[in-house]
Amino acid sequence: MTTRPTVRFLDRATPPHIFTLIVITGLGALSMNVFLPSLPSMAAYFDAEYRTVQLSVSVYLAMNAVMQIFLGPISDRYGRRPVLLASIAIFAAATVGCIFAPTIEIFLGFRMAQAAIASGLVLSRAVVRDMVPQNEAASMIGYVTMGMAIVPMIGPVIGGNLGEAFGWQANFVLLFVLGLAVLWLTWADLGETAQGRSTSFRDQFSDYPELLTARRFWGYTLAAAFASGAFFAYLGGAPYVASNVFGLTESQFGLFFGAPALGYALGNGLSGKFSVRLGINRMILWGSLLSTVGLILSLLVSLGSGDSPLGFFGFMVFVGLGNGMVLPNAMSGMVSVRPQLAGTASGLGGAIMIGGGAALSAAAGFLLTLGTGALPLTVVMLVSSTLGVVAIVYTMNRAAQVVAT
Questions:
Q1: In whole angstroms, what separates CA 127 from the centre of its chain?
Q2: What's 16's DSSP letter?
Q3: Which of 121, 282, 330, 390 could hold 278 in an S-S bridge, CB 3.0 to 4.6 Å?
Q4: Is residue 76 within 8 Å of 194, Cβ to Cβ?
Q5: Could you count the other beta carbons within 10 Å of the beta carbon of residue 399?
Q6: What's the whole-model pTM score?
Q7: Residue 7: which H helix or E strand, with range?
Q8: Are 268 and 160 in contact (CB under 8 A)?
């Protein structure tokens, strides 16, 4: 019978306390969205176009995607603890660079380096798998990643008020202070959990071709990518819409911005309650449809009675609800296509998902111009969500064909 290893808080000779893993994960989520209400004022500070400043979201996501592929294998070889400590230290140093960057180009360079904090989410899951048996891992990972649902609700509220009171740099000062605190906590509490060491990176990447030729893997991956893509497009375009279309202050935007996170929390709850009963395919389909219907309604309201903050942000709850139903089930599906390649599938699928999100985030920023209102952003999100429906319908048909044969 397998038992959990002994955990003593602030003892780096034992595995980490779950609080430490939650904090590490939450810092990554906070760095993604805390400064979003300040994007318009950052554009004015750097004397740059909004679409250029908005790349601070896109390049961060792009680097995050790249790191998803490599962080797991690197930590398998060198250990979770040194990789996490190095990543958080790089994040803190890059945050200082963001604060004092004299030009938008230099700022974007440091913003890319900030994506090192992606190790928090990737390696927290790996640490959990190291610590507990498989049947306990899903529950524990749910607690660890709850910061991904809570932080998007409170982050922009904090960032909006900080930016309004002290300027956009205050958001990055907050990230720097928290980065140092999390670095110390990780050093003091996180003992090494990886028992073995891989001897070859080549062996770890040799399984990718088998996954890339599996149609159902692509189906689940694209369903997740297009569902989350609608949200990432929202990340890229919502600050512009809030400031230039609705004239909201940074603090007001912070309050409206968390609407999708409310839906996401509800969608996660529905997934936990009904996924076993209904099956992952039906949950993904219903989640994709709910997101798509919400965006259709948003589009119709915008075309009929014009844009309004409540109308636009209110319907974003459907996007979060759909993501909460789609993502846990799609991730479960992509790692189940080839069970023996579950770890590889998780990293590769996550990289594709985040990379697609980076592209859609950039597209939203480039399409939004003065006079267009929120319409381009809504259309981009609707197209992405609709493609998610197509992806899961294809996957369900493919699964039916496999059963039939």
A1: 19
A2: P
A3: 282
A4: yes
A5: 17
A6: 0.75
A7: none
A8: no
